[in-house]
Design goal:
mainly beta; 2 domains; 55% strand; single chain; 360 residues; eight-stranded antiparallel beta sheet; 25 strands; seven-stranded antiparallel beta sheet
């Protein structure tokens, strides 16, 4: 049984579409022989494209061969992902075949991030053709599925078919979701469970996605195969937004803090959409006072260009990664000068009072 031909489903990356989302895909395929000491690899990623596929194939003069195929297609305008992995081998002991396809959303640490309405998102992980085949008592073959949102599992499973027809599985790939069929040379396990795994996930204003599949055969068999085809759609109304960092440094940080309006989504990561405005308000502690801001030019990597601003609050444009330093000082006024003026005023009142007393 040979894996089906890799296909392409071209789509345009539409960053401004109301229901587009950020994601990249990658594929990897490997076949090995001689107890995994000699391997043939192939990989592909979709940087600048909408499709990634790869394949690896090795044959030997005595008739043994292994193949591994993987493809990943995406349509960002509709939020659709399609992952396909397959391995097929007629090999001697010590040979393996593996294939992996993945789709990974941009994490919150990247400049680009998925933004949305902050409402609960719903979707389906669709399970298509999932088959495992073994043709030897020592054979094993495995399929794995992992789909996460914000690092939390939404749909996952793993199934392994052994040479004696025993099927072990977890998650969506529990044994009851397969039909194990005896064949003349071994066993075939066909997924017959629910065609889709529905999910509802309460997201804030951003999320990242990790969608991963792989299939593999063991190094102790003379014949095994596996196919896994899954696809999914993410909820609408999410857009790709480029974010930039806002860094705030303090002179005398024990003297006060800075309030941000609007506040960042994550207080530990001061990040804002490119082109947005943020208002900074210096809040001195009791007995301390605000002195000034030092606002650095984002286009000067050496931090030698800046402006001084004594207004409070201030509003800055997030047109790049921005750096602002706030200065606090002791006292609630303007330092030594107000104190001297107050002392002179008191002294003047004292002198005036003495004169009035002398005039009696």
């Amino acid at each position: 049984m040979h894996a089906r031909a890799i296909y392409a489903c071209l789509a345009a990356l539409c960053l401004s579409a109301a229901n587009s989302w950020a994601v990249s895909t990658d594929t990897w395929a490997q076949v090995c022989t001689n107890n995994n000491t000699v391997c043939n690899n192939d990989s592909d990623s979709d940087q600048g494209l909408t499709h990634a596929d790869c394949s690896s194939y090795v044959s030997w003069a005595w008739g043994s061969w292994s193949s591994a195929d993987a493809s990943a297609d995406r349509d960002l305008a509709t939020g659709h992902l399609d992952l396909y992995t397959a391995v097929d081998s007629n090999i001697v002991v010590g040979d393996t075949a593996q294939a992996r396809a993945g789709a990974h959303g941009l994490d919150y640490g990247d400049d680009d991030i998925i933004y949305g309405p902050g409402a609960a998102g719903t979707g389906d992980v669709n399970l298509g053709h999932v088959v495992l085949v073994v043709n030897d008592l020592l054979a094993t073959t495995t399929v794995n599925l992992n789909f996460e949102i914000n690092g939390l599992p939404v749909a996952s499973g793993s199934a392994t078919l052994e040479g004696n027809g025993m099927l072990m599985g977890t998650g969506v790939y529990v044994p009851s979701n397969f039909n194990v069929i005896p064949e003349p040379n071994g066993y075939r396990a066909v997924y017959t469970g629910p065609p889709a795994v529905s999910w509802t996930f309460n997201v804030d204003s951003f999320f990242d996605v990790w969608f991963d599949t792989d299939v593999q055969t063991s190094p102790y068999n003379t014949g095994a195969a596996a196919v896994q085809h899954v696809w999914m759609d993410l909820p609408p109304n999410y857009v790709l937004v480029t974010e930039k960092r806002l860094t705030i440094r303090y002179k005398n940080p024990q003297y006060g803090h800075v309030d941000l309006d609007p506040p960042p989504v994550d207080p530990n990561l001061l990040r804002y959409p490119l082109g947005s405005f943020v208002t900074l308000t210096a809040e001195p502690n009791e007995g301390k006072s605000f002195k000034k801001w030092k606002i650095f030019d984002p286009n000067d990597p050496n931090l030698g260009t800046f402006v001084i601003d004594t207004n409070n609050p201030i509003t800055i444009l997030i047109d790049n990664h921005r750096l602002v330093k706030v200065f606090f000082k002791c006292g609630g006024g303007g330092g030594l000068l107000p104190l001297l003026l107050m002392m002179l005023a008191v002294l003047g009142l004292y002198v005036l009072a003495r004169r009035r007393s002398a005039w009696g």
